[in-house]
Design goal:
Layout: E1 5-10, E2 13-17, E3 23-26, H1 41-63, E4 70-79, E5 87-97, H2 102-116, H3 118-123, E6 128-135
Parallel strand pairs: 5-6
Antiparallel strand pairs: 1-2, 2-3, 4-5
Helix pairs in contact: 1-2
Length: 136
């Protein structure tokens, strides 16, 4: 079983450490007692989501021997207006630069979305998840 530790630093700033030992700092808006020194927890979740699917896609493309010159993932989200303000819609825009066959890009994204990314597979239980890609 994995363990993550989250500790209050001051105000509303927290430092979290997972099993790798690396720190993730989170804070909130001054309106709710924070000092705006770091990302909000849901922002950190969305960053992790982008990293998770991004690592999947690049790993799969490397196995296909089609590595992009540049690669990025943009995530657009919508949240419920009432508490707990869960994510209700997540849209990914995958951007590739280089000689990437369209079929390979699509296959890599589909495998990440449907099979490999645990964060996406958890969030799609409560949010509508869609995606698109662009090859330049």
């Amino acid at each position: 079983m994995g363990k993550t530790y989250v500790k209050l630093v001051e105000g509303m700033q927290f430092v979290a450490r997972g099993e790798s030992g690396h720190a993730v700092i989170m804070d909130s808006d001054p309106k709710v007692g924070g000092n705006n020194t770091a990302s909000r927890p849901v922002e950190v979740l969305l960053c992790a989501l982008g990293g998770c699917t991004g690592m999947d896609v690049i790993s799969i493309l490397r196995k296909m021997r089609t590595v992009p010159k540049e690669f990025s993932v943009q995530i657009e989200d919508e949240r419920a207006s009432e508490h707990p303000k869960v994510l209700t819609r997540i849209h990914f825009i995958y951007r590739f630069t280089g000689d990437i066959p369209e079929a390979n890009a699509k296959k890599a994204i589909e495998l990440s979305m449907q099979r490999y990314c645990p964060i996406t597979n958890m969030l799609n239980k409560t949010a509508e998840v869609t995606w698109e890609y662009q090859i330049e």
